[in-house]
Amino acid sequence: MDVNILLFKLTLVVYAVATLLYLFSVVVNRPGSDRWGRWSLRVAFFIHTVTLVTRFIEAGYTPVTNLHESFSFFAWTLAGTFLLVDRRLRMAVLAATTCTIILVLMLFGSLLPMQVQNLNPVLDSFWLPIHISLAFLGNAVFTVAFVAAIFYLLQERMLKSKKFSALYYRLPSLDTLDMLNYRCLTFGFPLMTMGIISGAVWAEMSWGTYWSWDPKETWALITWFIYAALLHGRLTTGWRGRRAAILAIVGFIFVLFTFLGVNMLLPGLHSYSSMAG
């Protein structure tokens, strides 16, 4: 078995440990009980980084050319993004949920062919790591915004109904969750925008046109418009709270469909990243 495959499986196990430790810290709800989850997540991210570097050395290209690699890279960018967020806002509930999403991504990746494949000639470009990194970092930031939005709506519902579950006492304030949602939008939207622009430039170099209305391109543009509307509403009309949270959730659904659904349901120029390892 290849070293990078063994490292991938080890990474998956450590992410699972981090998830369980964070979930335990949510249950016990004691100050400092999340530190073991945090350290486990840091260790998992480090091993994951080594895994990607090892695969890069073996393959000779940035390992994001099939669905297994895409799930792994998405999980890695999400883990790194959340660790940056966690430096400022240490929230065990959000950490447990984000780690669960990371673990799910890794589990899906583990079910797909993991062997290194020959690189499709159209992907042999210096634009590959630039475009992919920008796109996945944007997706990772919007995933954190999605988690914050979910908990915002849950907490708001409990406040309105005056029915408080144990989860309520483990959640950050509504203002904190709304602020996190906004901060993620201000970072994620430029990353998504630069990802689309870099993809257009790459497309012109590869196919002779900046835009071909390929399904992936079309749905990426639709997703961009959703987040553009949310950012515009935030900046000009003061959208915040419930409306902003709902749009963050809708935007994330479109992110997932653009990432996964398009590849599986709508064949096009990006079909080389399909289920066929």
In short:
This protein is an all-alpha fold and about 280 residues long. The chain is built from eight helices and no strands. The longest helix has about 35 residues, at about 125-160.
Key structural traits:
277 residues, mainly alpha, flat, disordered C terminus
What does this structure look like?
The protein has helices spanning 3-28, 35-59, 67-88, 92-110, 127-161, 174-207, 215-237, 242-265. The chain is flat, with a radius of gyration of 19 Å. Helices cover 75% and strands 0% of the residues. The chain is an all-alpha fold and 277 residues long.
Total helical segments: 8
Mean pLDDT: 88
Please state the overall shape, judged from the principal axes of the Cα atoms.
Answer: flat
Helix content: over 70%
The tally of domains stands at 1
Helix/strand/pairing class, anyone?
mainly alpha
- Report the sheet-strand fraction: under 5%
